[in-house]
From TrEMBL:
SUPFAM superfamilies with a match to the protein in the record: C-type lectin-like (SSF56436)
Alphabetized CDD domains for the sequence: CLECT
Source taxon at top rank: Eukaryota
Residue span, C-type lectin domain: 1-93
Name assigned to this protein: C-type lectin domain-containing protein
Origin species: Rhynchophorus ferrugineus
Amino acid sequence: MTEQDQKDVGDLLKYEDGLDTAVEFWIFATNLGDKSSYHWLHSGRSVIYSVFYNNQPDNADNTENCLQIFQLTKGNFFWNAVPCAFNLRFICQYKNQSSGNNGIGVL
């Protein structure tokens, strides 16, 4: 995921219909194996861009090793570190067959 891709996820979620302010998603980055920085699970590359919420990540109880994105208020998304065992929703990227453009879907 490029820095631009990372920014685009938050921007695209702003226009996803039906998301309430309690919605939370995995963004598939972790600091497991290297507590000094976060890395993308699919590539191992460092997370470059971030929009962490105030005073985050704080690694409360030394158990917060995976990243989520959540909607604080309508259209305002932030990142937070949470335990990897949390049950959160997913963001999926797909290619629109009719337009050929990439899109996102939420599960």
